[in-house]
Amino acid sequence: MKTMYKRIYSELKNGRDVVLASIIKSEGSTPRKEGAKMAYFEDDSTLGTVGGGKIEFDCTNICKDINSATAPFTKEYILDHNEAKNIGMVCGGKTTVFFQRISSSEDTIALFEKINDIFEKNERAFLITSIKNGKIGIYHDNEVFGLSPSFDITPFLKNTPTMTEDKSYFFEPLSNSEFVYIFGGGHISQALCRMLSLTDFNVIVYENNGNFSDIRLFDGAKRVVKADFTEINENINITHNDYCVVLTRGHESDNEVLSQIMSKHPSYLGVIGSKKKVTFMKEYLLSCGFSKEDIEKIHSPIGLSIGAVTPAEIAVSITAELIRHRASKR
Questions:
Q1: Full-prediction pTM beyond 0.85?
Q2: Which of 84, 169, 177, 217 is placed for a possible disulfide with 124 were both Cys, Cβ 3.0 to 4.6 Å?
């Protein structure tokens, strides 16, 4: 999503309008859910997806025909083969797509500049879209920019996209402020960083060895912290919204990391290791005074059980587990 908004901002700055297709309602089984978007640009290229197949084909053709005089509108796609208006997909649900043309006006450019700044700073914000006129606003730092709804919007600021009852406004989280902290910079961490960045996680790598702390090794990382594993609290601030993945080079350094981050109660905590190593780890944490209940919350061995062997495969299994955890939070 960050890449899409960055491209939109670039297009608008260069005087080129953009057409945005957004899913604002999804019922039953559908390829994509509320908040999924596809941006269509003047060079006929697109970014994002609203589900692929015939939905995306039709949406792309619609976007091509939208001009500056076209008012924003919605279109429903029926994916149930039992209904007469089915478009030829048999997922079983219904999807409503909202189409809007975003003009390269001075105000709109300033708004998308702010959106990109929010992404760069990894700050929490919400996108507000007026379904009636297609105008866009942002809720950020307790202020609303670009729109002026005449009602209390706080009940609609949720982790999942939300529509007002009268279907006049659509609210959606714009960015996630949580981080994934990867402790250790080895081959698995390097592969994991790439996977996580591709799935919209914000990654920070923490490593004590200079040979494994070069940010060029970690595609998509926000930053790499080179510091001793005994000084975690002095160098980073882990919150209960964050994810922690412990992949250091030995059980002693793993335990050193765990003894400091357990008390932070991160949203997700996973540690790589064999069953024997996990048993040793649990005994150590019990000796440190941590409760059995807290210790049992640790995901270890880390990752979904898919028979992963290589660093890339292990990275896929860990990423999948983090995606599942993120989805459960929604």
A1: no
A2: 177
